[in-house]
């Protein structure tokens, strides 16, 4: 069984050739709200990041995988495991699909592949996602995979001169 390869996409490690994709994505201000970014990244900084991306998840406590189309090998997005706590068998999940590749089922397929990976290979008991209450696409995506809303962080995200609530979603693996 190949855990990270699906029908339409593959989750793969970061490569030096991902520099331009990362540069465009990380410097897209419309994503800064969810990534907690406040300034642009230089290609130099992102090159250093790529050089250190091979760090083990048990050391880094995070893992970023590229979402690549199987038929073209084009990068269409990224999926992250963050706040990895092996002792407590939990981690957070974040996903980003480039706008031109939305509505093709890639986010859903990537999430299914990643869940299989973290529950099988990382032996996690639970995963969580933090989603602003106006991000209806992400709410739907995570709820379709069985995530349950377990909390609301009131006025948690300040963006465009307004506060937004952040919802906490959790999936516990039996």
Largest sheet: 7 strands, mixed
Number of helices: 6
- The CATH fourth-level homologous superfamily of the domain at 62-172: Gcn5-related N-acetyltransferase (GNAT)
User: Shape from CA axes?
Assistant: globular
> Into which percent range does the helicity of residues fall?
25-40%
| CATH architectural type of the domain at 62-172 | 3-Layer(aba) Sandwich
Radius of gyration: 16 Å
The N- to C-terminal Cα distance equals 21 Å
Textual characterization of the structure:
The chain has a domain of 111 residues: Gcn5-related N-acetyltransferase (GNAT) (Aminopeptidase, 3-Layer(aba) Sandwich). Helix content is 29%, strand content 34%. The chain contains six helices and seven strands; from the N terminus they run βααααβββαβαββ. β4, α5 and β5 form a beta-alpha-beta unit. The model has no long low-confidence stretch (mean pLDDT 90).
